[in-house]
Specification:
This protein is 23% helix and 34% strand. The strands form 3 sheets. Strands 8-9-10-11-12-13 form a 6-stranded mixed β-sheet. Strands 5-4-6-7 form a 4-stranded antiparallel β-sheet. Strands 2-1-3 form a 3-stranded antiparallel β-sheet, with no helix packed on it. It is globular, with a radius of gyration of 20 Å. The N and C termini lie far apart (49 Å).
Length: 213
């Protein structure tokens, strides 16, 4: 299969050379995306998307899975990230935050060496808060501890740049045992659990107060 990089149209055969729309030389397709919903007609028919912006199926709205040379890769991890990408900003808006920007796989680099010192799966931001969300397939206590350490690193990064915004933490998981959920909330983190093709914030215990960095 070949596609036009400019038009992002990927339905050309291997013997085609130029795009019929813009005339640009075609490139071989090594990565594509398929709907993760096995009941969706697009999944059943094997219809593929060829743009990196096709995060969700145009027919049923389910997250897409990445394919390389016809094989699904990192399916579980990628599915979880895209699952929790769905409306995650709205979840925090409902809690009183007014996030205006959302970034995925946000990297923080040392100001001197340029070395990456922390990576966050999702970062929701506004002028007052930055909410760092870590996504795991099967959330464990060690993931929570690691995320708290990660937020501390980001806090130091902010301080060095004079960024006075308050940092809030959240964790998300497809599988979250009750003891792990309670542990995360005891550390002052919001917990996002799976609900259908999106995520919901777990019920907050009485007296819960999010930890601020």
């Amino acid at each position: 299969m070949k596609r036009c990089e400019k038009c992002e149209y990927g339905c050309y055969e291997k013997d085609d050379v130029y795009c019929a729309i813009c005339g640009r030389m075609l490139e071989d397709v090594t990565t594509s995306y398929i709907c993760s919903n096995e009941n969706c007609d697009k999944h059943i028919q094997g219809d593929e998307y060829y743009s990196v912006f096709n995060n969700f199926c145009s027919l049923c709205g389910s997250p897409t899975l990445e394919m390389r040379n016809g094989e699904v890769i990192n399916s579980v991890e990628r599915f979880m990230e895209r699952l929790f990408l769905t409306g995650v900003d709205n979840l925090f808006d409902e809690l009183g935050y007014s996030t205006t920007t959302q970034g995925q796989n946000v990297k923080f680099a040392d100001i001197t060496s340029g070395k990456v010192i922390a990576t966050v799966d999702f970062l929701l931001e506004d002028s007052e808060y930055a909410i760092a969300v870590d996504v795991n397939v099967d959330l464990e206590m060690v993931d929570i501890d690691n995320h708290i350490d990660r937020i501390a690193v980001i806090r130091n990064y902010f301080d060095k740049r004079g960024d006075k915004r308050i940092l809030i933490g959240a964790v998300a998981g497809g599988i979250i045992h009750d003891n792990v959920l309670k542990y995360a909330q005891k550390q002052g983190l919001y917990v996002i659990t799976q609900s259908g093709v999106s995520g919901v914030i777990a019920d907050l215990p009485e007296g819960f107060k999010p930890r601020e960095w």
